[in-house]
Write a structure and sequence with these properties.
By secondary structure, the chain is α+β, with helices and mostly antiparallel strands. Helices cover 25% and strands 8% of the residues. It contains 6 helices and 6 strands, in the order H-E-E-E-E-H-H-E-E-H-H-H. The strands form 3 sheets. Strands 1-4 form a two-stranded parallel sheet. Strands 2-3 form a two-stranded antiparallel ribbon. A two-stranded antiparallel sheet has the order 5-6. It is globular, with a radius of gyration of 23 Å.
Length: 223
């Protein structure tokens, strides 16, 4: 019969015997040079603040088609600080491969033209909005709800990936019939300013907004 005891590695045995030897870490992945892999190193996924990986969409298209939406009734709003938030299973967010930290000045940080140049037509988004409202079971006024990019276009969000779009209800206390007016838009603008002036990186801003837009500014010290 083989012994059930595990053999103690020589290096660990030596440390146990020698005075002054502190701890030995076992089983921690390291790179070939003995260092722990750096966050965001090549070949590693970029996680969101909640541990989710942010998907990469197709990016801007010359001709957009109506994107298929989640099954009707399969998505559910959640609320933080009284504000409606997306269902993370249905709308986890998606970024555009056309926007990177290296090309900010020629994309989202250039003066005018970027978002209007990549935004799908209202013909496409209008159809998607109705389908997405069914996905979320939204029955309120469509004119008061915004078909919102979770990661906004000005933060490099994908223009027409279904994972990055959701019907965002009006804020609590919003007067019915008064149109779209929500508190998420100013948060996106402040994050955009912070990215373009170098206060935070693009990836950090994207992670903050996709995790919880209601706490994004305070978490990054921008409130």
């Amino acid at each position: 019969m083989l012994s059930a005891r595990r053999t103690v590695p020589p290096v660990l045995l030596t440390c146990l015997l020698l005075a002054g030897c502190k701890s030995v870490s076992l089983g921690t992945p390291t790179s070939s040079d003995g260092k722990s892999p750096a966050a965001g190193a090549p070949g590693t996924a970029e996680p969101s603040g909640s541990g989710r990986v942010i998907a990469v969409g197709e990016g801007p298209q010359k001709h957009y088609t109506v994107a298929q939406q989640p099954t009707a009734g399969s998505c559910h709003y959640r609320y933080e600080h009284g504000e409606p938030l997306e269902d993370t299973a249905c709308t986890p967010g998606a970024i555009s491969p056309a926007v990177t930290q290296a090309n900010l000045t020629s994309t989202i940080c250039r003066k005018g033209g970027y978002t209007s140049g990549v935004r799908p037509s209202t013909y496409v988004t209008g159809k998607e909005k109705k389908l997405n409202a069914a996905s979320y079971g939204y029955t309120g006024s469509m004119s008061d709800a915004e078909y919102d990019h979770l990661i906004s276009l000005q933060l490099g969000g994908d223009p027409n990936d279904y994972r990055n779009l959701w019907v965002e209800p009006a804020d609590p206390g919003h007067r019915e019939g008064s149109g779209v007016n929500n508190k998420k838009d100013p948060v996106e603008t402040k994050l955009h300013t912070a990215v373009c002036n170098g206060t935070v990186t693009l990836a950090v801003a994207q992670r903050a907004i996709v995790t919880d837009w209601t706490t994004a500014l305070s978490r990054l010290g921008l409130s």
